[in-house]
Structures are given as structure tokens and as C-alpha cells.
């Protein structure tokens, strides 16, 4: 065979690639997973700054007190309210967790219920993580978890869940971190539910590390020791800065830091709300209601727009207590 014939035969048998064609076969497992999610994630916008001329040690004085009925016709008549946490959300609305009725309620500026969710709430209550979102502590079939809830068009909307490996008796948020009480320890998590570190532990009782709140700069963590009637102030590494006791602070429950940095703590058995200095070392004032009294306060929140301290009480039938302050 001549060279010319060999060349022609070679060309006939050789395939020439003139282009490529690609197709995509999607993963049906991922498609199913995404269809079950409420979103791909969340954008957190946080502004934490002291208001102009704010004084964290400005002492509150009670001007008047009022009670507001926050019950619903569908509330169980066999159970009583047990409002474990209160937050101001969506600029002018109030969200509260009722561990007695196992309900989350959204109130308008007139303290009327405009939305609610029935959920498996635990004693851990909730904390605010953005202007319109909170995270709740739940227990479902012996599984402890955190559940994100947001306010959308005046309605409460459920979001994602994070599982915990321990009980949650209290929760606070600061700068992308969640601080979770387990009754005897304080742990720090990121927003994905990853345990970053254990900050503090006290195993001398069943509710020694009960509730917590974080100072506005994030340099102090206030923790209530319910069983030993103390308010602890911790550094961010878990070191105790101060330990506060007072006859009017018996079996402390919820603790709250206002938008100006004031520290408020509930004396559950002493039926009072104490204002403590930002160092957590001394009492500045005792907030009470002469007209209505105060029965086992367990949660407190300050509304800067109305200059009001809102109090949730244990075994309350229908009402929250609102103290107008200056």
C-alpha cells in the first residue's frame, strides 16, 4: 500500500472531535432537603451602641403601674401563665414566652395579642438576636433545642432549629454568639449551634447558673444563681468579677440589660425588681408596684420608647405588669 493510500485509510478510521456537549443531572436528595427548609440562611444586622447621653447607672423611679390582660379565649383554663421572657421586637411590638400555657405571644403597642404560636417551650425562654428575630428554648420528646422565630407583617413565623446536648434554662445573645445556661453551667455557641467553649460551672445546686444577660459592650455577663440567691457578674472568660446578694433578691430569676446599659434582675421570692449598678456590686433601686403589688416576678424587659419596665410573673392568671418609670 502506498503512503498516500495509508494516509487516506488512517483519516477514514480516525474520529475528529469538533465539540463537546454537557448536561447536568441534579441531586434529588438535595432538592428534597432544600424543599423542607424555610430559607437558605439569615442575615443578621446588629447595632449595639449607647444612646446619646445614656447613663447605665441612671436610677429608675416608678411613676405609675398598670396591669394588662394578655390572655386569649383559647388559652387553657386549667393552666396559669408563667411568662419566662419578654423582648421588644420589630420596633414597637412585644413578644413573650408563656411556659405555663406553652405559647409564644406577640403584642402590639397597646399590649393586645395580635399573633401567637403553640410551641414546646422549656424554662429557657428566649433572647433577641435582631430587630425582628428571637431564638427560643424548646424541649421536644426529651430533645433540647433552640428555635428561631421572626416577625413578618405582624405575624410570628417559625424558622430553623438547633439541637443542644443539654438543658437550657436561659439564653442571651451578643455579637454573633449565643450564651446558654444549662442550670449548672454557662456555655458559648455560635449561630450554627457549634459549642465554642464552656465559660463557667457551679455544681453546688440545681439552679446555680440559671439565667443570663450580656452587657452592651459585651465585656460582662450577668448570671442569676437561683438556689443561692446571688447575681454573679462574669468576665468573658468566665472569671467571677463580683457576687451580689441582698435581702430583696431572694431566688433571683430573669436578668435584663436595658438599651442604656442598666441592669435589672427579678427577685422571685422577694417579689421585687432590683436595679443593680453595671459592675454588679451594689443595689441602686427597688422597683415595686404599690397599687397592684408584685407576685413572683420571673422576667423583666425595659421598653425605651415608652419608658416602661414590663414584668412577667409566675402563676399569673392573665396579666403582665407595666411600670412607668423616669
TrEMBL record:
Q: Which InterPro entries match?
A: 6-blade_b-propeller_TolB-like
This protein is called Uncharacterized protein
Q: Which organism is it from?
A: Dreissena polymorpha
